[in-house]
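Predict the assembly for these two chains.
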Amino acid sequence: MPLYICTGCRDIITSGDNKCGRCSSETVRADSISWKIIGRVELFSTPEGFPEKYYVYLLESGIRKIFCFSEAKFDDDASVFPEFIDGKMVCVSSGRE
Amino acid sequence: MAAITAANHVKFGRLEKDLFQLSIDSALPITKKYGDAIDLAIFANAYGGQYNGLSGVNNRLSAELFDVPVPSLRIDNTSSGGATAIHAAKSIIQAGDARSILVIGSEKMSSVPTRQSSSIIASLLDPYERCSGLTLPSLAGFLARMYMTKYGSSRESIAQVTVKNHRNAMKNENAHHRKEISIEDVLSSKVIASPLTLYEYCPISDGSVSMLLSGDEFAQSISSKPVRISSSSISSDTAQVSLRDDIMQLGAVRASSSAALKQAGISTEDVDFAELHDMSSILELVEAEAVGFFQRGTAWKEIMEGSMDPDGSIPVNVSGGLLARGHPIAATGLAQAHEAFVQLTSQAGQRQLKDPHFAISVSMAGFGNSATSIVYEAI
């Protein structure tokens, strides 16, 4: 599921609408924004519904910061963006087919 | 004004008794003695539904604790529920709606596996951030990394918070963990959320603390050594941590502590000791800066110099804090107040500080989603 970000209130939108339901500002697709990795934590004690080990990334764009999940370790700042997959907000490489 | 006139602390730990019985154990010594003077009971509990499958516990407690049940209510503000209950009780007494109020804070957490417990606690997070796998321990990991990068703090200085608080808990008979540990022990324990390790997070604890709050006109007739609640303040911040301008700043802690100190008419220099919300080691350092005890980015140097030790310039978490005393969620704010009560009435035994007059406690909900600060004064 593509993820949209409101350019006004910075809300996260999953409906695919190009207008924010809360403030009516325009939304943009997360994969059209340049995201920079500004933090990463590796978790070894995890909640139910998640693997027993994974990473949480903190990404930053010109609009907002966002946390996202991945089982992979990324180092290339510009090549990831967040997307909803199986109910999780996942970091996805832009090189993904 | 309102004052603490009696307090009772059940030893924290992984306990056999259930939520109801733990609460009875902490409250009964107070109601047996002062039951006739109590007009209201406030029960602080966050997760009785999720952990224990219970609801309506406040009414059952009132029926069990009093000959004639008094009105009761439950307060949930996650980890700061106990402190929030004190704030509410103080406000009700000041409004003249009660002479004395029994405040009970209890949590029974050890009844479920650790992963289920992590899920229960994570339910307080913003739903989108929970979908990213974010947990409170992982936020502390982010904070530690950012703090080390921005201020050049050593890894050892963060671990020293755990070492200090475990040492303090050796003198607290109510603490969950009473075992001295070294920096090497901390750094070599299992990584939970990099770079922080097992010893740098509070344990999963069961426990209960109860106290009696009374109006000024009744306090002296109940206790010869009451402790005044000089002020209390609650502040909130967005629960969506990624929307905060600076994730390293605990805005709610700064705002609530600043307001509480101002209402009490004192500054940080007047405070003789503090109980801070060290859910993780790094949080004690960042909160000590947010309250204003130290300049931003310097608490890591201060802890290595002993400034937060019991004989330092500002003793922090003499009780052992959440890291060693334990953190049965809604009981914690009351455990902090209990420490203020015993210290300010010279009943703290081996860990008694020398002639303290003012204390502050800071209790945090979530990752600074809310914070409740309380200033205490010896009368």
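Chain B has 15 helices and eleven strands. Chain B has a mean pLDDT of 97.
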